C-alpha cells in the first residue's frame, strides 16, 4: 500500500485541536485515531534516519491527546516499527468514560529502503489473502490478545492505515469471532478487485455488479451442494455484530471498491434480490475457486457490517486520496452511512 507522504510524516501541525478532545464527537475520535497511526509512521521514519534528541518529532502525535507510548511493535524480519500500543493517561480533571483505555495502531507501507521490501511483501500477502500467515500479523495479534487479557475488551481501539488497516481488520475479525467486539478505525483499507467503482456510467456499474453477484452466488450454491454447508456462512454470521469504522476516498483505487460493495448490497435488497446478494457478499469468485480445490480462504475485504465514511472532497491525485492526513483535517466533505448485515 502507498505510504504517507513526507509532509505528513514530519509535520506536527495537522491533527492539533484548539479545544480539548470531545470523546462523543465522531470527528474528534476519527482525528485522534488517525493521529496515533501517524505516530507509528513517524516512529519508523525516525528510526531509519536515526533521529535523536531535538530531532525527534513523534511524541506530539500522541502526547497532545494525553496518550503514553507503552510499547513499539517490532517486525521480526526487518526490525521495523510497524505498530504501537498507547495508553490513555489524562489529567484527573479530564477523565471521560468514552475515551479509549488503550489504542493499538498499525502503520502502512513506508517507501524507504530499510522497510520497503518487507512492506511490499506483506502488500502482496494481502492480495493473496495470506496476510494472516505472516509473522508480523502473528506479533500484532498476540499484542492485541495481551492487551485484551490484561485490560478487558472495554474501550480498546484498533486503528490502521492502508497495510496497517489490513492488520487491524484481521485482528478485529479474529476477536469478533471470539465474541470480543473492539472499536476499529480503518483508514484507506485495501479492497483488491476489478476497478468497477471507477466506471463513470451508473447503469454499467450496476449491471456488472449484478452479473458478478449472480456468478458468485451460483458458485456458492454449487459448492454448498458439494461440501454440505454454505461457504463462509458461519464465520460471516459471527462477524455481523462487529461494526468497524471504514474511511475511504473515491479517488483511491486501493479502497474505493468498498463504496460499491456496500451500496450494491443495499440496492439488491431493494430490488428483491437480497438472498442472492447475501450469498455473494460472503465470498469472492477467486476464493470460491480456491475452496473448490480444497484450499480454504477467507478474503480480508469481505465485511458483514460497517460504518462507512466517504471523503467527497476533491483530491488532486492518488497520493492525497490515499493520504492519512485527510482524516484529521476539519474541512472535509464527509458522508457517512451504516450498513448492518442481517
Description:
The chain is an alpha/beta fold and 342 residues long. The protein has a single domain, classed as Rossmann fold, CATH 3.40.50. The protein is built from twelve helices and eight strands. The chain has helices at residues 6-10, 26-49, 60-63, 113-127, 135-151, 163-177, 202-227, 233-239, 257-270, 274-280, 285-292, 318-321; strands at residues 67-74, 81-88, 102-106, 156-161, 183-187, 245-248, 306-311, 334-339. The chain has an eight-stranded mixed β-sheet with strand order 1-2-3-4-5-6-7-8, with helices on both faces. A hairpin with a 6-residue loop joins strand 1 (67-74) and strand 2. Helix 5 (135-151) crosses helix 6. The model is unreliable at 3-14 and 288-293 (pLDDT under 50).
